[in-house]
Amino acid sequence: xxxxxxxxxxxxxxxxxxxxxxxxxxxxxxxxxxxxxxxxxxxxxxxxxxxxxxxxxxxxxxxxxxxxxxxxxxxxxxxxxxxxxxxxxxxxxxxxxxxxxxxxxxxxxxxxxxxxxxxxxxxxxxxxxxxxxxxxxxxxxxxxxxxxxxxxxxxxxxxxxxxxxxxxxxxxxxxxxxxxxxxxxxxxxxxxxxxxxxxxxxxxxxxxxxxxxxxxxxxxxxxxxxxxxxxxxxxxxxxxxxxxxxxxxxxxxxxxxxxxxxxxxxxxxxxxxxxxxxxxxxxxxxxxxxxxxxxxxxxxxxxxxxxxxxxxxxxxxxxxxxxxx
Length: 325
Fold this sequence. Notes:
The protein folds into two domains: about 10-160, Ferritin; about 175-325, no CATH class. Helix 4 (about 130-160) packs across helix 5 (about 160-195). Helix content is about 75%, strand content about 0%. It is built from ten helices and two strands. It starts with 8 loop residues before the first strand and ends with a helix. A two-stranded parallel sheet has the order 1-2. The protein is elongated and about 95 Å long. By secondary structure, the protein is an all-alpha fold.
């Protein structure tokens, strides 16, 4: 027998008993993954957690059917053959790469798992010479295809009721707290707070290269500072604002982006051309902030425009005034 841990086997080289053993271990792994998803979602999304509980139980039923037919044909000793032992076999992402993702992303991952399993059972059935085994594998292929359909139907049933609507509200609120709010704060800080030092430097030196150096330092420095501050000041456990790493990334990147927007024009050597373009970009940034506030924070649009554009204009004017004196 070729050792399973020494080198990976090709699927075409597996015997029928090894294919069944592989199917058994795969069903066991998938049941554990679905159970992990259920536990992860149970507190905030109990309706979706119940769906994954049912999917895990179905995978356990499949495993029991496979074990029964294996023992009938090959005995009670089932060799340990796992996905990683077979070249070209479908794989699963480690649970820690998925557990911090959103509800919709987990559903997509589950759909991919079912597609992979259905394709495996179809191929495995073609390799079987025993009618009963061939029938079981074919039935399992059909079951895996139906699995996704049943999950979708259950999700539609859930989404149509109050539990589903509440889950969607919670998911949207979590998206706002984890990504939009820190990102918006960073964009506002990067766009507005860097205006004064950048334009003060511009109008005091009339040098594009000097202004760009100062602007680049201000934007990157502000991004690093905001990112670390957001990640360090709240671990998200009590506030429910989500992963501090995600919030730090959103805040830091958007802060740097806000500052770089009106820094990059100073790569143009002609000072007045660069400055005119930079001022135009500033107002685009301020309008973008107002739009995001209106879209996600439900701030009335014109009130957001008034607050952001007025505040940004005051900071811009301050920088120009100080730099020109």
